[in-house]
Amino acid sequence: MTQSVDELPVRVRILVGGRVQGVGFRAFAARTATRLDLVGGVRNLADGRVELEVEGRRTVIEILLRELKTGPSAAHVTKIETEWSTATGRYSSFSIWY
Q1: Is 66 in the active site?
Q2: Ordered structural domains, the chain, with CATH
Q3: pLDDT tens digit string along 36-78?
Q4: Is 26 noted as a catalytic residue in this protein?
Q5: Which one of the listed residues 11, 26, 49, 57 is annotated catalytic?
């Protein structure tokens, strides 16, 4: 049985801008990704943005993206950028990177 294109794992690099550092955004992203059974990680960037590398089914990643737009209550997301590519299979869980 073959998987539909929708079920094949993909990779996305997500850059989140706005007031997203120091407000629990990384923990929120990690909890949400873990709940959705996605793998990868999240880190703060020096320019004030938060970066995620996520692998999983595209339809599930799109749920994550919708939740990231809201973020935790103290966050204010102004921009989300995505770069989609082929899954690498290098992650086995979702982590906060420091």
Answers
A1: no
A2: 7-89 (3.30.70.100)
A3: 999 999 999 999 999 999 999 999 999 999 999 999 999 999 9
A4: yes
A5: 26
